[in-house]
């Protein structure tokens, strides 16, 4: 099987450690060609670090075991690891993109000739972004990073999810608190719900953050991607009991309606009001909330 350099695309020999064209270190991609910085015991050299996903400039890494523990923490850390509670980080190769937006305070370290800017273009722009933060709950300023080095985010025990907006009709509406990073080719805006009932009765906000354009985004979720359900609609309708949808294409119309034709039938079903999505698009739904309802708890056989 012919191998190619991930940096320049040149054909490689089977036993090559460095690309003969650009000098990229093939065994440790964190060592860049022509760079005076060499990052050791990281991706490619540390068997405790696993790459979970890679799209565009983004890579998600996971530490399979938390080795920095005391004897008193060892049991908890061991079982946490067994139950997929592990530290995760987002690694960004800024040389593969024109730049990224990052959630404020999320950067842990970066290397190379990188540039940081506030992303604010004057007082008027600050006012608009402050208003957006007020209505959506997101931070006012999302720093912008560009350059040719690496950026690594703070560790999190949440699950990191990479999405290509081309797979979501280039428009994705997300729940508050999900945004972590996006390429600068992606535009962030705020969209008002088409129906006031969808905000008041569904325990949702009246405004949501919308990501639109071309590029990749990273979301930070309590639910792992392998447990999320993707629902595709083509001029159809889906009803969901509770705020289980964490992201959806913004063209979908969201309302809150009775689960039955009347309040009596809704009361009999035990569901009451449900979120109803109509139109054509996709929904990313979490089937598990992380909290069981009382009736779902196991009962004693005695």
Task: Explain how this protein is built.
The protein is 11% helix and 37% strand. With 302 residues, the chain is mainly beta. The strands form four sheets. Strands 12, 14, 15, 17, 18, 19 and 20 form a seven-stranded antiparallel beta sheet that branches. It is globular, with a radius of gyration of 23 Å.
Structure summarized in a few sentences:
With 302 residues, this protein is mainly β.
pLDDT < 50 runs, ≥5 residues: 122-127, 262-270, 290-297
End-to-end separation: 63 Å
Give the rounded overall mean pLDDT: 80
With helices defined by DSSP (H or I, 4 residues minimum), what is the helix count?
4
Question: Helices and strands, in N-to-C order?
Answer: EEEEHEEEEHEEEEEEHEEEEEHE
What is the gyration radius calculated from CA atoms?
Answer: 23 Å
Category by helix and strand content: mainly beta
Helix content: 10-25%
E-strand count: 20
The shape is globular
Strand content: 35-45%
Instruction: Please summarize the sheet with the most strands.
Output: 7 strands, antiparallel
């Amino acid at each position: 099987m012919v191998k190619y350099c991930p940096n320049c695309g040149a054909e490689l020999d089977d036993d090559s450690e460095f690309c003969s064209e650009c000098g990229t270190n093939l065994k440790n991609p964190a060592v860049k060609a022509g760079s005076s910085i060499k990052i050791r015991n990281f991706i490619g050299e540390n068997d405790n670090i696993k790459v979970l996903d890679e799209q565009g400039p983004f890579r998600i890494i996971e530490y399979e075991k938390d080795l920095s523990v005391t004897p008193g923490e060892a049991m908890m850390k061991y079982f946490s690891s067994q139950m997929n509670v592990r530290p995760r980080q987002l690694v960004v190769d800024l040389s593969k993109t024109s730049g990224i937006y990052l959630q404020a305070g999320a950067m842990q370290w970066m290397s190379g000739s990188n540039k940081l800017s506030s992303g604010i273009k004057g007082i008027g722009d600050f006012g608009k972004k402050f208003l957006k933060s007020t209505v959506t709950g997101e931070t006012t300023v999302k720093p912008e990073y560009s350059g040719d080095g690496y950026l690594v985010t703070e560790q999190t025990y949440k699950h990191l999810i990479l999405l290509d907006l081309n797979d979501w009709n280039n428009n994705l509406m997300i729940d508050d608190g999900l945004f972590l990073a996006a390429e600068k080719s992606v535009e962030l805006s705020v969209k008002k719900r088409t129906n006031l009932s969808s905000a008041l009765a569904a325990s949702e906000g009246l405004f949501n953050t919308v990501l639109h354009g071309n590029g990749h985004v990273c979301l930070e979720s309590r639910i792992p991607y392998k447990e999320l359900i993707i629902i595709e609609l083509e001029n159809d309708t889906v009803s969901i009991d509770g705020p289980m949808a964490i992201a959806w294409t913004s063209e979908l119309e969201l309302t809150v309606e009775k689960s039955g034709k009347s309040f009596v039938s809704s009361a009999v079903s035990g569901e009451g009001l449900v979120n109803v999505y109509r139109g054509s698009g996709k929904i990313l739904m979490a089937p598990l909330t992380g909290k069981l309802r009382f009736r779902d708890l196991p009962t004693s056989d005695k």
